[in-house]
Design goal:
The complex is a heterodimer. By secondary structure, chain A is an alpha/beta fold. Chain A is about 40% helix and about 25% strand. In chain A, the strands form two sheets. In chain A, strands 6-7-8-3-9-10-12-11 form an eight-stranded mixed beta sheet, sandwiched between helices. In chain A, strands 2-1-4-5 form a four-stranded antiparallel beta sheet. In chain A, strand 4 (about 70-75) and strand 5 (about 75) form a beta hairpin. By secondary structure, chain B is an alpha/beta fold. Chain B has a domain at about 235-325. Chain B is built from eleven helices and twelve strands. The longest helix of chain B has 18 residues, at about 190-205. The chains are: A alpha/beta, B alpha/beta. Chains A and B meet through helix 7, helix 8, helix 10 and helix 11 of A and helix 8, helix 9, helix 10 and helix 11 of B.
């Protein structure tokens, strides 16, 4: 059973102009998406830059004003609500940012950074708080000496782990991870990914994993949604998306990923070319006359694809 | 190896940066050569010296704070010793460069056409009309639709992929023999990345230039390169033809890197992690195998005292002897000593 539902979420940015600087038009950054979160599962949001995936994450946590649609958290409508320190929603939804360095206050010590959510949401005595900070540092594999250091004294991977320690400090249910590893080197990336998986198993966390890297998302996520121009083009579990992609955009994205295997280069180039031709000729099957993605149609229990109604009959 | 085929030969290059009156070598004894009609990929993690290698070749470094020693031989000249003025005639004309971030590499106040023309004015004796037609031809060559219109536009009016195409057009404008591409697709989306890499390969076939492709992405390497040099802590630790490297990686670092990629077609729950961190330039021990600290379960005797590159099969070079005894920590045994 899902603990959180997002229904037809829309975030439109106004374009101002004209004589009185009035709103003349809107940019639909997120244009009607629905998601459900279940306990202990990881959800992936994949798309190219500018498709609205980060805006989705920000609007869920409340950093972006929602234009329409609703977020229901444990039966309560929390859309655009002013939420104080006592709100359960703020405690239970946490975020990990892409750039660990700029997400940590350079003038605070590690212990104060990690303690911030504890002080906000959990009423602990100073002794308990210290114990909890040591616990958290142990979880992310750092020594207790780190408590008194400042963020600049750590490497990129360590900073990202401090960010993770802060995110899990308030025992959240859902962590929104916006490109958590794309600024890291390969070997460090592996470290952080392994570690995110470990704490997921241990605490039954749910993730919303926002990334442009289909390899990383496949490694981490159970359910994956592909986003284009603020809408989902395809949504399904790992198998649906990677072995049975239906939407042309998904196919195009998958064919463009470089494979770590130099043997069948020419073959893959041919596939890329064929998909590109398909993309140009069958455009109207997947996008309406304004270039907008169609609504999602269910094709199996887990798998949904955005195609025109006519095409759906043909499958 | 035929010497006539070699476009560029680098011999024992050391590039050091000055920190408090001491020079620390970021590139520490690199010897590598580029042949005609070849894409040589230089791959490594951040801080391994791969970009420093590129800037050393064309002299794009701060001369007050940098020391370059060794030989960079191009057409019998040592570029490392060349004066700035003479180097200017090589840069752009014979060696083109493609940068990572196309927006900051382009001048925001100049029209696209003018920027491409700039190199032609400096390096050729073409007339105005010839230059204009060459610019349009170049734009067409890099796959820009409607070149007449684009050449009058400014960089901010183009998308990221288009900007990178313009950068490539500038790099090939004087038909250089060598193109250095420093992370050309890192700032781009995957679909655009595939297009740009295909374009680079096609251009390389047409012009016969040699390309040095600097990247951190092993997928990009597998898709484009002919030969690969893997760098770690300022040194080349493995060099091989691309098929050989991916089929038989030898050096522990290369093997660990390949194992830490979250792959599309593997269901492995755990990714390989390399213990410890890339050593900093200042604290780097300059003796012994530089990777030894990160594979502590391999006995000390397995490493060479002064690791050098050994040829293990034709064209396949590996530094140090530790690869013969290497196994991952999770595996048992391997070859015992």
């Amino acid at each position: 059973m899902s603990f959180m539902q997002i229904n037809d979420l829309k975030v439109h940015y106004p374009i101002r102009g004209g004589f009185f600087n009035t709103v003349v038009d809107n940019v639909p950054a997120v244009d009607g998406i629905s998601l459900e979160f279940e306990k202990g599962k990881a959800y992936g949001l994949v798309g190219e830059s500018g498709c609205g995936k980060s805006t989705t994450g920000k609007s869920i946590i409340g950093l972006e004003k929602i234009t329409s649609g609703s977020i229901i958290y444990e039966g309560e409508n929390v859309t655009n609500k002013v939420r104080g320190r006592n709100s359960a929603y703020n405690r239970d939804i946490q975020m990990i940012f892409q750039d660990a360095h700029s997400s940590l206050n350079p003038r605070k010590r590690v212990q104060d950074i990690i303690a911030e959510p504890i002080r906000n949401f959990l009423k602990l005595s100073p002794g308990e708080e210290r114990k909890r900070i040591n616990e958290l540092l142990a979880i992310v594999g750092m020594s207790e000496e780190a408590r008194l250091k400042y963020p600049h004294e750590f490497s990129g991977g360590q900073k990202q782990r401090i960010g993770i320690a802060r995110a899990i400090a308030s025992n959240p249910k859902l962590i929104i991870a916006d490109e958590p590893v794309s600024a890291l080197d390969l070997s460090v990336q592996a470290q952080v990914l392994n570690f995110l998986k470990d704490i997921q198993d241990e605490f039954g966390l749910s993730y919303l994993f926002i990334s442009h890297d289909l390899g990383v998302v496949k490694h981490m996520c159970d359910n994956i949604s592909i986003m284009y121009k603020g809408r989902f083009v395809e949504s399904g579990n790992r198998k649906d998306i990677y072995t049975n992609p239906q939407h042309i955009y998904t196919k195009r994205l998958l064919s463009a990923i470089p494979e770590v295997n130099p043997t069948n280069r020419e073959e893959r180039k041919e596939i890329r070319r064929a998909v590109e031709v398909d993309y140009l000729t069958n455009h109207h099957d997947y996008y309406d006359e304004n270039g907008r993605v169609f609504d999602l149609q269910t094709i199996s229990e887990t798998h949904q694809v955005a195609t025109s109604a006519q095409k759906k009959g043909g499958i | 190896m035929n010497n006539l085929d070699q476009l560029l030969t680098i011999k024992d290059l050391h590039t050091g940066f000055r920190i408090k009156d001491t020079y620390y070598d970021a590139v520490d004894g690199v010897s590598v050569s580029l042949r005609k009609n070849e894409i040589l990929a230089v791959v490594g993690e951040s801080g391994c010296g791969k970009s420093t290698l590129a800037t050393s070749i064309i002299g794009l470094y701060d001369h007050n704070k940098t020391r370059v020693q060794g030989e960079i031989l191009y057409k019998g000249k040592n570029l490392a010793l060349l004066e700035e003025e003479k180097l200017n005639s090589v840069r752009g004309e014979e060696i083109g460069m493609i940068f990572q971030d196309p927006l900051s590499a382009l001048n925001p106040l100049m029209r696209i056409g003018e920027q491409i023309e700039e190199g032609l004015i400096y390096h050729t004796k073409m007339s105005k009309q010839e230059r204009t037609s060459r610019v349009l031809e170049l734009l067409k060559q890099v796959g820009i639709p409607n070149p007449e219109r684009i050449s009058r536009q400014f960089p901010h009016q183009l998308s990221g992929g288009m900007r990178q195409r313009v950068i490539i057009a500038i790099a090939i404008s004087c038909k250089p023999n060598i193109i250095i591409a420093d992370e050309p697709t890192t700032a781009l989306d995957v679909t655009i990345q595939a297009q740009i890499l295909d374009l680079l390969k096609e251009l390389q076939k047409e012009t016969g230039a040699g390309i040095i492709l600097i990247t951190h992405d092993l997928g990009v390497v597998a898709e484009t390169a002919d030969r690969v040099a893997v760098m770690y802590a300022g040194q080349i630790i493995e060099e091989a033809p691309v098929d050989e490297l991916f089929a038989n990686p030898r050096h522990p670092y290369t093997r660990s890197l390949l194992n830490s990629i979250p792959q599309m077609n593997s269901e492995n729950e755990k990714l390989q992690v390399i213990q410890g961190m890339v050593p900093s330039l200042v604290k780097l021990p300059r003796i012994g195998c530089r990777f030894a600290d990160r594979i502590p379960w391999i006995p000390k005797e397995a490493h060479e005292e002064n690791p050098t590159l050994h040829e293990v099969s034709p064209g396949h070079l590996v530094r140090c002897t530790c690869w013969q005894h290497f196994h991952f920590e999770s595996e048992k045994g391997g070859n015992s000593l």
